[in-house]
Structure formats: structure tokens, C-alpha cells
Design goal:
Blueprint lengths: L4 E6 L2 H11 L3 E8 L2 E7 L8 E6 L5 H10 L5 E4 L3 H10 L4 E8 L2 E7 L5 E7 L1
Parallel strand pairs: 1-4, 5-8
Antiparallel strand pairs: 2-3, 3-4, 6-7, 7-8
């Protein structure tokens, strides 16, 4: 068994697609119209057949209170692995990305937390 899909709830699929592809560097894998929304996924360019991230509309009534509570408490909804958190932090900050946590070393892991502009905090992590 392996994970093939993971989701993040977003307030605007177009804005999310731009952020996750043009800023974070993922590539669009799937886009299927489904009425008002789309089945929209992105993947790492390093693993085009790897786990897909679904940019899920946040229309369900439980989503907004859930994501707002996580953001208010500073809790990332998910984590993405990077080779060098400090370099990625500098690159993303240079693109105007807002970080709620600058790089922080915690034993064998270094993390930073960013705002994805779509209602979520995302952690980037480097494992030594």
C-alpha cells in the first residue's frame, strides 16, 4: 500500500494552481472539470508519477473553521521535503512568499513554514 493522493483545501483553485506551480515549482498533473470546480492535481517534477496533491475546493462547511483554526494556531496542514530549507526559504522569500516561521533547526530536521495564499500554512522540511 502507498499514498497516491493527498489534499489541501484552497479558497481559489486558479490562485492555488498558480502558487503551487509558478512559485513552489510543482507541475499540473490532472485537470478535469466537475461543475463549478475541477479535479485539479499537481506533482513534483522530480516524481511525475508520484503522490499527487489535490487542490481541493474549500466549499464544505467544515473546511473553513478547520483551516482557520490551524492557521490561527500556526499549524501547517502538510509538509514538503526540500534538499536545503535555507536555500528554499531565500528563493521563496525573494518571490514574495510570506513565512510564519523562518528556518528552525530541530535536531535532525530543519523546517520553515509559509503561507500558501490560499488559506493554508505549509511546512518545508530538510532531513539530515
Amino acid at each position: 500500500m502507498k499514498i497516491n493522493l493527498a489534499s489541501v483545501f484552497v479558497d481559489d483553485q486558479d490562485k492555488a494552481l498558480r502558487f503551487y506551480t509558478e512559485v513552489l515549482g510543482f507541475v499540473k498533473k490532472t485537470e478535469v472539470p466537475l461543475g463549478e470546480y475541477r479535479w485539479l492535481t499537481v506533482v513534483s517534477p522530480e516524481e511525475p508519477n508520484g503522490t499527487e496533491l489535490v487542490l481541493e475546493p474549500n466549499g464544505h462547511p467544515a473546511v473553513k473553521p478547520y483551516t482557520e483554526a490551524l492557521v490561527n494556531d500556526g499549524i501547517p496542514v502538510t509538509s514538503f521535503a526540500v534538499d536545503d530549507v535555507h536555500a528554499e526559504f531565500d528563493r521563496l522569500r525573494g518571490l514574495g512568499v510570506y513565512f510564519t516561521q523562518e528556518p528552525l533547526e530541530m535536531g535532525p530536521v530543519t523546517t520553515a513554514v509559509l503561507d500558501d495564499t490560499c488559506g493554508n500554512l505549509i511546512q518545508i522540511a530538510e532531513y539530515k
